[in-house]
Structure formats: structure tokens, C-alpha cells
Amino acid sequence: MSRRIFIVALTILAVMTFTSCQTTKYVPDGKYLLYKVKVIPDIKSIKSYDVISYLRQTPNPKLFDAIPFNLGLYSLSSPDTALWINRFLRKVGDPPVIYDSTLTVSSVLELKKYMENKGYGNAVVTSDVTYKKKKAYVTFKIKAGDPYTINKFRYGITDNDIKQIVLADSVNTLVKEGDNFDIDVLESERVRITKLLKNNGYYEFDKDYIGVIADSTIGNHLVDVMMYVKPMKRIVGKDLYKTEPHSKFTI
């Protein structure tokens, strides 16, 4: 049994080694296979795997993070799709990802937007591309700079009933003074408050009724944040609305 497993493993290794040498077979002349992408932040709080989804172009998936196995299978095929084996290899495999410089520019902008959302408004994102044997290797470097942090945080709620509910649960707020001015955290706080109010009978409440005012004019990368609740809008006619307090449902 162990010998059989050894033979199977050896066969798989041989296939992987062979296919890895065929990765640029279907890369047109003058073009490059996007072979590897790295993101290097200069702070530990930003992880490379957190920002991969913001990249506009990523390489073909790799087995064990080393062998582009599916690309290799695709490369084993020939253009003659009349043969079933070629159709099969192209179906289970992946065509090569051809490097696109415009998508690299878009990735830089998306990474910068991500850093701004995390409070690093002055972050600098650069890209570097090297070419080797029809393969492109892209490296993104992120210099975070000093973050904007929350100086003061408060709720600006005029509806007393809603105000009491929110303040009574303020110990569970996700927004803390001294933390980074993180847009994602503010969004999560809007969701938390919405769920809290729905659980207290405000079934028609929606997170879009919660607004945020951020004041960064105080300087020193400090931001005062106020989260407020807008009144409910009711449609009373074509393009006509009236505002009223949010309704609380009771038994």
C-alpha cells in the first residue's frame, strides 16, 4: 500500500514539475504571464492577505503556493479542440493571466483607497514590475505614514427614546477614542446600532438613517466624530416626502 502511495505521489510530482515548465506556452509574443504578485506594507497591522482582494489582477492559482497546476494542465492541451483530451484539459485547467499594466495602476489606487479607509490618509502606494522569461513579477509597496485617530466620539441623537437605547448600550460601541479613524469600523457601528434598534421594536429602521460627521480641522491627525440619526422619511406624493419620528412597534 505504501509503495502504491509513493508511486502516485511521484506521478503527481512529475506532472506538476512538467506542467510548471509549460506555463508560458499560450502567452502571446510581446506579452507576459502575471506569475507572482506581492504586497509589502511597512506596518504590522496591515496584513498582505487582507489586501489581496483589492488587487485588480492576480496570478493563476498555485498549488502549495508554488506550482500553477491548473495553468499547467491548460498548457498541456493543443489548439485542436476536436480531440476530447484537449477539451478536457482546457475545461479543468485555467488559461494564463496576461499581465495588464493598466490593472496595476488600478490596483495602486484601490490599495491607497483601502489605506485611507483604515485611517492612513497620507499613505503612499507604489508598484514595481520585473520581467523574466515571459513572466511578470509585480510588487506593491505600502508606506502607511501617520494615521488619523479619533479624538472624541459622541452620538448626536435628537429622538430621546432612540437616544436612551443607544446610550444604554454604548459600552458595546465599536468606535473608541484613540483608535484609527477606520471607515470599516464606523460602518460596522452603523450595522450594530441598526440591529440594536430593530431588537427594541424599531423594525422599519435602516442603517441609511445613521450618518457620520468627521471633523479633522483640529490638526495633529486627530478627528472628532459624531454619529447621528436622521428622521424617518415618508412618501406623500410624487417626489414629495415628509419627515417624522421613527415608529416603535409594540405588542
Distance between the termini: 68 Å
Low-confidence stretches: none
H-E order: HEHHHHEEEHHEEEE
Mean pLDDT: 88
Per DSSP, what share of the residues sits in E-state strands of 2 or more residues? 15-25%
Shape: elongated
Number of E-state strands: 8
Q: Indicate the radius of gyration in whole angstroms.
A: 27 Å
What strand order characterises the main sheet?
Answer: 1-3-2
Number of helices: 7
Main sheet: strands, sense, barrel: 3 strands, mixed
Question: How much helix is in the residues?
Answer: 25-40%
| Class of secondary structure makeup | alpha/beta
Structure description:
The mean pLDDT is 88. The chain is elongated, with a radius of gyration of 27 Å. 33% of the residues lie in helices and 24% in strands. The protein has a three-stranded mixed β-sheet. A three-stranded mixed β-sheet has the order 4-6-5, covered by helices on one side. A two-stranded antiparallel ribbon has the order 7-8. Helix 1 packs across helix 3 (69-76) and helix 3 packs antiparallel against helix 4 (84-92). With 251 residues, it is α/β, with parallel strands linked by helices.
List keywords for this structure.
single chain; three-stranded mixed sheet; 7 helices
Question: What's the short story on this structure?
Answer:
The protein has 251 residues and is an alpha/beta fold. 33% of the residues lie in helices and 24% in strands. The strands form three sheets. The chain has a three-stranded mixed beta sheet.
